Amino acid sequence: MIKPIPPIVILAAGNSSRLGQPKQFLKWGNTTLLEHTVNQALHSESTDIWVVTGAYHSEMTDLLADYPVQILHNSDWKNGLGSSIATATKELALLHSSILFLLADQPEVTTAYINRMITEFRTGENNIVATQYPNSIGIPVVFDKTYFSELAINSGNGAKQVLLSHAKQVSVIEPAQAFQDIDTKEDYEKLYLEYWGESAPLFKR
To answer: How many angstroms separate the CA atoms of 58 and 168, rounded?
Structure first.
């Protein structure tokens, strides 16, 4: 049986405390990190795209005003990634039978990779499809509705506990190169240089 195409939820609620400025608005080529992630999602097989905002809700709403995405505000964003996952799960639980979660600070995640996850989930036997990292598995990840009740409870560590608790139900995809998060100024400058072959735009001090 082919499963329905999952909606995509982009988690973008944090305040980027380690970076010192909102990473979602950092330049990425001719756009921003957040817009880049939204564009990758919009070009995928999924037609229902959501963005979870938090610390910079109004600014993100303005930034994405012309994009065909739905904005979901997580007023509890200070309680971590798990609170955004819980917020989105509660909102979408009655509408969908699965959810694909993305992070706003992983620009190496492409439309092709998103579609690969969707295909693996729809045609595979397992109810979770996660991404392999050197020492763990995590987001991007697709969850079947079987796990919505657990995801709707903010455990404080995102989806990690759900993945660990149901390891036998997880299908893992390993990208050609492990996706890098952008948490610090150094992370941003290093990844920008690798990807674009030039120095990152002036970093706001």
So the answer is: 41
Tokens 């952008």 belong to: 182
d(CA 16, CA 31): 19
Q: Tell me the per-residue pLDDT of 92-125, one tens digit each, with 9 for 90 and over.
A: 999 999 999 999 999 999 999 999 999 999 999 8
First and final CA of the chain: distance in angstroms?
Answer: 53
Do the Cβ atoms of 59 and 25 come closer than 8 Å? Answer: yes
61 Cβ contact list (under 8 Å, min separation 6): 53, 71
Q: What is the pTM of this model?
A: 0.95
CA distances from 86 to 23, 92, 113 (A): 22, 10, 24
CA proximity to 152, closest of 68, 92, 87: 87
Burial class (CB in 10 A: 0-12, 13-18, 19+), 13: buried
Q: Hey, what are 130's tokens? A: 């996660």
pLDDT digits (tens, 9 = 90+) for 144-165: 999 999 999 866 667 888 999 9
